[in-house]
Amino acid sequence: FHFLVLCYIIQVIAASDQCGIRNFDPGTVQFAINDGKGNSDVKAPWIAAIGKFGKGTDGETKFLVSCSGVILTPRVIITANHCIFFKPEYIRAGVTRIDQAKPQDRRIREHRTHPDHNNKDWYFDLALIFVTEELNFNARVSALCLPSESSSHPGDGVGVLVQGWGEDLLGDSGMKVT
After folding, report:
1. How far is residue 163's CA from residue 143's CA, in Å, rounded to a whole number?
2. What is the C-alpha to C-alpha distance for residues 38 and 33, in angstroms, rounded to an integer?
3. Helix (H) or strand (E) run with residue 46 in it
4. In this structure, what DSSP letter does residue 44 have?
5. 14-41 in b/e burial notation, b at 16+ Cβ within 10 A?
6. Which one of 75, 88, 131, 177 is at 20 to 30 Å from 107 when CA atoms are compared?
C-alpha cells in the first residue's frame, strides 16, 4: 500500500514542466558521445547510472556501473528490482561517459521493492531508490515525465525507445539511446 501511495506522489511531482526534455532524435541508435573535452549534450537527462566505486582493471578507483535507472524526482530513481542484487551504493547522473567530468554522484540512502515482486517469475521487477542529497536539475539532469493517466498498448509496429548505460566496442561505458 505504501509503495502505491508513494508512486502516486511521485507521479504528481514528476508530471511538471521540468521533465522529459530530450536531446535526441527518436528512431536513431546512438551512444551519447562527448567531444573528448568533457562537453556533451546529455541525450536523455533522466537516465542515471547505478553502481559503486571500486578498482577498475587499471587499478584506479572508478564508478562501476551495474544498472540503469530513471530519475523521477530530485531524490527518487526507479530501477529494476534485480539491480538491487548488486548492492549499489551510488547513482551517477549528468554525464554521457561514466568517467566524464562534473557528474552528479549521490549516495543511495535506501530502496523499496514493489510489494508484489516475485524473483521466480520476474513479475513486478521494480524498485525505488532514494538518495541522500537532491539532484540539481539542469540541462544535463532532469526527471522523466510520467503519464497523467493510464493508456492501452499502442499496438503492433509502434516504435519503442530504449535508454540506459552500456559499453561501446572499446569497453567504455556510456549512455545508449535507441
Report:
1. 14
2. 10
3. none
4. -
5. beeeebbebebeeeeeebbebeeeeebe
6. 177
Burial of 43 (0-12, 13-18, 19+ CB in 10 A): buried
- Residue bearing cell 505504501: 2
Kindly state the cell numbers that stand for 13: 511531482
In whole angstroms, give the CA distance from residue 92 to residue 129: 12
pTM for the full model? 0.75
CB 167 within 8 A of CB 176: no
